Amino acid sequence: MGVYNLSTVTEFILIGLSDLPEVRYSLFVIIAMIYQVTLVGNGAILLAIGTEVKLQTPMYYLLANLSLLDIFCPSATVPKMLKNLLTEKKNISFVGCVLQLFFLVALVGTEFFLLALMAYDRYVAICFPLRYTLIMTKGRCVLLTTGTWVAGFLHSLLHTVFTFRLSFCKSNRVNQYYCDIPPVVALSCSSTYVAEMLALVVGGILGISAFLITGISYIYIISTILKIRSAEGKRKAFSTCASHLLVVCLFYGTAIFTYVRPSSSHHSSARDRLISMLYGVITPMLNPLIYSLRNTEVKGALRRVLCHHACLQEG
C-alpha cells in the first residue's frame, strides 16, 4: 500500500474514552462481561447448530455465519479497548490501526450482506414453501454465503487502501475508541475528497442494495402472511422470521445512527460513543439472545447440549 512513505504518523491515540477516567474501571468490568456473554452466547449457538442434525439446514447455516460475525466483530475492537481502559497510554500502532479498520469494516459489511441473504432465505421459505428445498440447496446456500464474505472483505480492502494512502501529519488523535473510516480520514492533512466520495458512493450503493433486498423481501413476506386465513397459520409463518426481523431492526438502527448522520448534527461526543458502543459491543450480544429466546428449535438444541455437558461432568 505504500503507507509508510505517505505518512509521518507511526501510531494513533484513541481518545474516545479518555474523558471518562472516573468510570474507566466500571466500564472495563461492564464491557468485559458483555464481551464474555457475546462469546458464550454465540459459541453456544454454533455448538447447537453443529451438533443438532435438525438444525443443519440453510436457515441455521446462515444463523451460524451470523454468530461467527458476532464473535469476530467485537473481537476486532473490544480487547484493545479493554487494554486502553486499564492503562494510561491509549495508543495503537499504525499497522494495528490499519488492521483494525480493515477487519471491522469487512465484518460489518459482511453482516449487511448476510442479513440481506437471510431475508431472501425467509422470503423463499414463506412465499414459496413447496419450492424452498429446490431453490435454497446446500450448495447454493454455501455459494451465496461465501459471496457475502468475499464481498465484505473486498469492499473493506478498497476503503482501507484509499484511507491509508492519505497523509497524516497534523494530528494522530482518533476521536473514537477504535479505528474507523470517518475519524481516521478526519486526521488527514491531504485531500480527502477521493476517500470520502468512495465511502459515500461505493458504501452507499452496496448498503442501499442490501437494504433494498432486505426491505423488499419483508414486503413480500408480510404480504404473504396477511393472506393466510387462519390465525395459527399467520402466527407460525411470522415466528419463522420474527427473530431475524428484530436483528435487522437492531443492526440497521444502530448502523444508521453511527454512520448516516449529517456532519453538522449537534450530537454530543458522549452520545456518539454510546451509539458506537451499542453498535459494536451490545448488538452482537443481543443477537444470540433474540434467536435463542424466540426460536423453540434453538432453545431445544441448547437445552440438549447443556444437559449432555452436565451429564458428562457428573460422569
Approximate helicity band: over 70%
Q: Classify the beta-strand content into a percent band.
A: under 5%
Q: Please tell me the overall pLDDT.
A: 83
Which consecutive residue ranges, at least 5 long each, have pLDDT under 50?
Answer: 1-7, 262-268
Tally of contiguous helical segments? 12
Q: What does the secondary structure layout of this molecule look like, with pairings?
A:
Blueprint: H1 3-6, E1 11-14, H2 24-51, H3 58-75, H4 78-86, E2 91-93, H5 94-127, H6 132-135, H7 138-163, E3 173-174, H8 181-185, H9 193-227, H10 231-259, H11 269-294, H12 296-314
Parallel strand pairs: 1-3
Antiparallel strand pairs: 1-2
Helix pairs in contact: 2-3, 2-4, 2-11, 2-12, 3-5, 3-7, 3-11, 5-7, 5-9, 5-10, 7-9, 9-10, 10-11, 11-12
Verbal overview:
By secondary structure, the protein is mostly helical. It is built from twelve helices and three strands, in the order αβαααβαααβααααα. The chain has helices spanning 3-6, 24-51, 58-75, 78-86, 94-127, 132-135, 138-163, 181-185, 193-227, 231-259, 269-294, 296-314, and strands at 11-14, 91-93, 173-174. It has a three-stranded mixed beta sheet. Helix 2 (24-51) packs antiparallel against helix 3, helix 5 (94-127) packs parallel to helix 9 and helix 7 runs antiparallel to helix 9. The protein is globular. The chain starts with a helix and ends with a helix.
